[in-house]
Amino acid sequence: MLSRTVTVPGPVASVALPEAASSTTVDGYVVNVSGALKAGMGSALTVSFAKSGKPVTDLQPYLDTYAHLTAFHQGDQAFAHLHPETKVHGAHGGPALLFHANLPRPGNWRLFLQFQTEDRLHTAAITVHVT
Asked: How do residues 82-108 score in pLDDT, each as one tens digit?
């Protein structure tokens, strides 16, 4: 949470978010996101993983869960941090993780999903639209 105003010298440049999508690729992994997200109410968000056309089933725990998802709302400072509802059972998570998302505002949200395989941390970024 921001509790103080921070002044940063220099010009401000706005950067447009990439268009909303249902999948992205990072480090050879295809990450698919599905679910009808509605502002202000709990929505199911499923994230699935594939590599070389095959489902990924070797997600390793990272900070006690198979993934961390941080969401930032376009245009303001709203954010959310989510963990999957999937319980950790060793280094064989996947290919799909279910999240319970309750994003407070409609519009575009930039998701950053961290997951680990083969002792390497990956960060996938994707834009989703919340109605």
From this structure: 999 988 988 899 999 999 999 999 999
Structure tokens at 2: 């921001």
* Cα torsion 40, 32, 19, 120: sign: positive
Query: At residue 4, what is the residue type?
Result: R
- Name the pTM for this structure: 0.89
What domains, with CATH codes, occur in the chain?
30-130 (2.60.40.10)
Burial of 96 (0-12, 13-18, 19+ CB in 10 A): middle
CA 17 to chain centre: 15
Q: Tell me if 32 sits within 8 A of 48, measured CB to CB.
A: yes
